[in-house]
Amino acid sequence: MQPQHKRLLGAAATGLAAAVAAHILRRWRDRRRIRRMTKVELHAHLNGSIRPATLKRLAAERGLDAACLDRKRTLEVCFEIFALIHKCVDSLEIVAVIAREFLEDLRADGCAYVELRTTPRALQGRTEADYVRTVCRVLSEASGITARLLVSVDRSRGPEAAAKTLAEVAQLRRSDATVDRIVVGVDFSGNPTSKHGFDAFEHLFREVRDQWGLGCALHVGETPRSDGDSAKILAFAREKPRRVRFGHALAFSDDELRGCASLIEACPSSNAATLDLARLEDHPRLWCHFHSTGSPPLAICTDDTGVFGCSLAGEYLKVWDAFGPVDLVRVVDDAAAAAFDACCGEAVRRRRAMYNV
Ligand code: 6MZ
To answer: Where would one find coiled-coil regions in this protein (predicted)?
Structure first.
């Protein structure tokens, strides 16, 4: 090879190496910034957020078969895992432990404000009201993070059970100042293939929204249903969009969602698993949000860290890898604006001022 060719080749190799190094450095800096940035979590189910190590330990202590944990996460498998978790989380002491551990994990991930949701259960002779009181105490004692509660209505338990739970919560809100401060909304969740449609629960959500003045976080369009359920949820939300957020809302176009809800709670790992997506780039709601204008605001959420093996910072990184560069600070601001407690904005400002991210 001619000396001048050797020199050219050397210069090209040096240039390429410098470009690769700059790319790696930029990527490392982006990832570090996203990990540390101030975040908001609006869609996380308490029992689904159990630490995997805690779940494995509890299952082993109780001699329970945990084989479902090794299976690919379809919607069906997720609900088998919830059944296992519910067998393991069999006392209010354990409920308190998993709540504290999850708050710790969120704080480490840069979360300034969380709305945790859970379905009250009567455990070991204690009532559903005791369950709500316990969770509210733990959330009110959290430090370095502001935590609020959404009471979950599990559609598969049916409307009578939901009415009974909400009557107890209404009573508690009147008699317990901590519960009154911490409970900021009601969630509609549970197996989306359940026979119970939203119409059986609508009067309860109307009461929560109009008489209690609280927010409604409604799971909708997580999986297709043939009974017009989604249309009823969308119509309910359209009446007072600022009081309603949607969980998942995977099956709709931007046009269908317009004017319906203040925000969509997107859960990347959970949605990718239940939709069986090969790549997050194909997530229908995230795709619309980042590729079209006029798409409703969305929040990046975890859903069930214990079931999907994800984390809040990890979900932000996945979105960045699939759609970046995108404005993640705006995503957090949108989430803060749609929080059911206005104190979220202050929690976000405080953390940003303290950590400068
Ligand atoms: C619908 C879900 C869910 O309430 O015992 N839950 N409901 N779709 C999902 N997507 C995967 N993930 C969790 O937490 C577990 C309960 O949350 C609801 C289910 O009712 C599940 O049993 P809690 O704290």
So the answer is: none
